[in-house]
């Protein structure tokens, strides 16, 4: 198939460090190329891919935010996608609702994967006006605020099977990986580790918008002797921190649409102790690949139960459900169905 992947431009594809959407776009794009599809990637010029790259900004626009309007780059890119759409069988958007008006103008089938939460005031009215736009959810839980939207499938994220290798033996520490934000619960992770009397290693990005929270609620806790803050890590760094952790703590305070850090942990064979919100029950099998808990008290109890978890079972769950190959094959099924439906509509129109 001739497939266009349209990424956000905030980070390169793949991102150098943190960047969930752009990381998934990269995994999917490279797997589709590997499967033999003709793939074009619309992304920033500093992206790295085996697909055809259409550079829509000179670099990740995150690097230009103080001197440029990042949305201007996105709107220009989406107009370029419209003009080139006749060259594709399907266009796959990862740009949230920004692409909806453009999608209606395409000379190709299209689908949009939503990567964000949907329980936000104002979104309901917008999505009702674009109820004809085909959507993919990244978890069933993500759909709950808008079950009536134009859902065509749920496709869980997947990552390359060899990216983070299985580690059979764990060291003593727990891990927290992701972003320093109230919704991610790093302060809760620190309290859980302290009460369980276990060291905690934190690998996380701090966005400027979350820096006041970090200074007020997290930084004083990081000074505790059981905590080590290592900042952002690349994939190589995660191999050591996650791969050798007794468990990863995921004490989220929001309806997480997916949570890539969870499948990164499972790939390493590392169980996950997570609050049961959002997508967590779709990713973690309680008592097999980790523990789903309700609060910090239950999380502390779960740390004591970690010897019950077989790290091989964690890796097996990853290989069964969360590889890039599985994700790409699921998306190809969506693409083929949407192309068939568009062809049928055009045929009826001609008749």
Summarize the structure.
By secondary structure, the chain is an alpha/beta fold. It has 12 helices and 13 strands.
What series of H and E elements makes up the topology? Answer: EHEEHEHEHEEEHEHEHEHEHEHHH
Give the termini distance in whole angstroms.
26 Å
The 3D shape can be described as: globular
The helix-and-strand class reads alpha/beta
| CATH evolutionary superfamily of the largest domain | Glycogen Phosphorylase B
- Kindly give the count of domains: 2
Q: What's the CATH architecture name of the largest domain?
A: 3-Layer(aba) Sandwich
Task: Describe the fold and architecture.
With 351 residues, this protein is an alpha/beta fold. It folds into 2 domains: 187 residues, Rossmann fold; 148 residues, Rossmann fold (3-Layer(aba) Sandwich). It has 12 helices and 13 strands. A 7-stranded parallel sheet has the order 3-2-1-4-5-6-7, sandwiched between helices. A 6-stranded parallel sheet has the order 10-9-8-11-12-13, sandwiched between helices. Helix 1 crosses helix 12. The two termini are 26 Å apart. This is Glycosyl transferase. It comes from Caballeronia zhejiangensis. Keywords: Transferase.
């Amino acid at each position: 198939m001739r497939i266009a992947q349209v990424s956000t431009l905030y980070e390169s594809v793949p991102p150098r460090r943190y960047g969930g959407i752009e990381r998934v776009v990269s995994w999917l794009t490279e797997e589709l190329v590997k499967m033999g599809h003709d793939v074009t990637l619309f992304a920033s010029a500093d992206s790295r891919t085996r697909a055809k790259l259409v550079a829509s900004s000179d670099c990740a626009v995150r690097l230009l935010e103080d001197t440029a309007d990042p949305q201007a780059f996105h709107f220009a890119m989406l107009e370029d996608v419209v003009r080139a759409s006749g060259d594709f069988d399907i266009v796959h958007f990862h740009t949230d609702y920004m692409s909806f008006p453009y999608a209606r103008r395409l000379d190709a089938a299209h689908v949009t994967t939503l990567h964000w939460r949907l329980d936000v005031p104002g979104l309901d009215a917008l999505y009702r006006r674009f109820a004809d736009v085909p959507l993919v959810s990244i978890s069933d839980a993500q759909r709950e605020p808008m079950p009536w939207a134009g859902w065509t499938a749920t496709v869980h994220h997947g990552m390359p099977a060899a990216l983070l290798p299985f580690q059979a033996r764990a060291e003593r520490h727990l891990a927290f990986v992701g972003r320093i934000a109230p919704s991610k619960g790093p302060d809760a992770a620190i309290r859980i580790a302290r009460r369980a009397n276990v060291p905690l290693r934190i690998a996380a990005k701090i966005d400027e918008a979350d820096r006041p929270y970090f200074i007020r609620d997290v930084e004083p806790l990081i000074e505790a002797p059981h905590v080590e803050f290592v900042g952002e890590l690349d994939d190589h760094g995660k191999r050591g921190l996650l791969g050798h952790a007794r468990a990863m703590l995921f004490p989220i305070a929001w309806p997480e649409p997916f949570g890539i850090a969870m499948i990164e942990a499972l790939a390493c064979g590392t169980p996950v102790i997570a609050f049961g919100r959002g997508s967590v029950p779709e990713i973690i099998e309680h008592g097999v690949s980790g523990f789903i808990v309700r609060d910090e008290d239950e999380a502390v109890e779960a740390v004591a139960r970690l010897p019950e978890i077989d790290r091989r079972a964690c890796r097996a769950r990853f290989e069964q459900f969360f590889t890039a190959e599985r994700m790409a094959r699921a998306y190809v099924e969506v693409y083929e169905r949407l192309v068939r439906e568009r062809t049928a509509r055009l045929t009826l129109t001609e008749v």
